[in-house]
Amino acid sequence: MKVQNLILLILTLCTSIQPIFSQEKEEKSSIKNLNFMIGMWKGEGWIQGQEGRKEFTQTESIQPKVEGKVLVIDGIGYGKGSPEDEARIVHNAFGVISFNEELQQLTMLSFATTGGKMENEMRITGEKTLEWSFKDERGGTIRFSEDFTQEGFWKEKGEYSPDGGKTWYQFFQMELKRENE
Hints:
- With 181 residues, the protein is of the alpha+beta class.
- It is 17% helix and 55% strand.
- It has helices at 2-28, 83-86; strands spanning 39-49, 52-65, 70-79, 89-100, 105-112, 116-126, 129-135, 141-147, 153-161, 169-178.
- A ten-stranded antiparallel beta barrel has the order 1-2-3-4-5-6-7-8-9-10.
């Protein structure tokens, strides 16, 4: 009888502890930890492609939706230079960041004219810094690092690794400033 009670106690403890660990991970990866991203952002950047380096102007809108359970990102970038370049859209993307219950992590579902639809893990790498990455169709990895540590500024860097993360080559940089709302 005592052995049965001990087994029952152990099973009860194990099943009650699991939600605590799950809750801790969810709180650490909570969408609320990304509230510093919310707002209207404008700035400039550059991208290095096969045709060379191209500069652009960028706007990003990040808004909470569904009572703060998701962040919606809407970004558009225009070429920089001649009037023809400034009328040309060079980046058009829409994303949703949420906490994926099944995976127990933050994910970003994004749609872009250049890359179609992707779902990526979004990792909080420090206070007001994060990173997300995906496999490239050429076999390499593309990662983006975002830094919001300087109040009112968003700095982002894009890098490509052809060798599984041993070597990284920067191909993208963007610096945005929060607009007064």
